[in-house]
Design a protein that fits this description.
Blueprint: H1 2-14, E1 18-22, H2 26-29, H3 32-37, E2 42-44, H4 49-61, E3 65-71, H5 80-88, E4 94-99, H6 117-122, E5 128-130, H7 135-145, E6 152-155, E7 175-178, E8 183-187, H8 192-206, E9 210-214, E10 217-219, H9 223-230, E11 235-243, H10 248-257, E12 265-270, H11 280-286, H12 291-306
Parallel strand pairs: 1-2, 1-3, 3-4, 4-6, 5-6, 8-9, 8-11, 11-12
Antiparallel strand pairs: 5-10, 7-9
Helix pairs in contact: 1-7, 4-5, 8-12, 9-10
């Protein structure tokens, strides 16, 4: 969130039409720095997320670029109807920042751990959806948000995966973080780090190699690009900090299904469960999102490919 807060501040310096709204989370999201710099353009709504989105939509319809921020559990979680009717139906210039997606809130528990936000936002007309993995991708996504007018959702993990190669390619295209052989792991969001760790262990264990990709912009979704990049592999594993139903893996599966023969897809995500209050590493393990879970699926894919 600190990276986004920095970009919001810089964008605010350049564009006096940017206004920001917070639902009593200015410290945890970092957006309070914008309020400190521009107190007349910053609005603290308290824990009234639905009102916040309505206010932002009104500001946007009066010519402002409105930014709203809170935990993803509460926006889009609590505000879906307002996003649908007040923002997307009007094609209003509202940028929604969903913080602490997935396990990010740790001991706050199931109410604060959002595993449904991709499904909630990707079905909305006019809404762009970003899911950056690295600090660099957060920065680039934040900058892209302010280059167009219209709704957008930026989902942010509490911890970004910064120790990976930085790609200069478009955010709408797969970024290869590591080259590999017959297998490919495709992830989105901060959980990319688990993919990289698991692949390195898998290679040391088996002597075989696997590629790792991430995708930072999910909507609009370029199905043809996904097929072109991934159809050459013998098996693909998707990884996301989200429900399997309606998430990133479902997008890939749909893209695959539209065109004939394709590699088998092994999906890793949350399988119809809620989170729990525990140390984040324990939550990842219990929900099947840990490095060990990715490693297990890689072994399963290897058996299917080399049997």
């Amino acid at each position: 969130m600190a990276v986004f807060a920095e970009e919001l501040l810089e964008a605010g310096k350049k564009n006096p039409n940017i206004v920001a709204f917070s639902a009593d989370v200015k410290r945890s999201t970092g957006t309070g720095v914008f309020g400190d710099a521009f107190p007349d353009r910053y609005f603290e709504t308290g824990i009234c997320e639905q009102n916040m989105v309505g206010m932002a939509a009104g500001a946007a319809l009066e010519g402002k670029t409105a930014v709203v921020s809170t935990y993803a559990s509460f926006c889009p979680g609590r505000t879906w109807e307002q996003l649908r009717c007040s923002v997307c139906l009007q094609n209003a210039d509202v940028k929604v920042i969903g913080a602490h997606i997935g396990v990010g809130s740790g001991r706050d528990g199931a109410t604060h751990q959002c595993f449904e936000d991709i499904a909630l936002t990707s079905c909305l007309p006019n809404m762009r959806v970003y899911s950056p993995a690295t600090a660099d991708e957060v920065r680039r996504a934040a900058r892209e948000l302010f280059t167009f007018k219209g709704p957008a959702y930026l989902r942010l993990s509490a911890v970004s995966c910064s120790a990976v190669p930085v790609s200069a390619g478009p955010l709408s295209e797969l970024s290869m973080l590591k080259a590999g052989g017959d297998l490919a792991v495709v992830a989105t969001g901060g959980i990319v780090r688990s993919a990289l760790e698991a692949v390195l262990e898998f290679e040391a264990e088996t002597g075989k190699s696997a590629a790792v990709y991430d995708l930072a912009r999910l909507v609009p979704f370029d199905a043809e690009h996904i097929r072109r990049e991934l159809f050459g592999y013998k098996a693909v594993i998707s990884l996301e900090e989200h429900q399997l139903n309606g998430g990133f893996g479902s997008m890939i599966a749909s893209a695959f299904a539209e065109k004939g023969s394709h590699p088998p897809l092994f999906k890793i995500g949350v399988d119809g469960k809620f989170g729990l209050s525990a140390d984040p590493s324990d939550v990842y393990e219990r929900l099947g999102l840990s490095k060990n879970a990715v490693l297990s699926r890689l072994r399963e894919a290897e058996k299917a490919v080399y049997a």
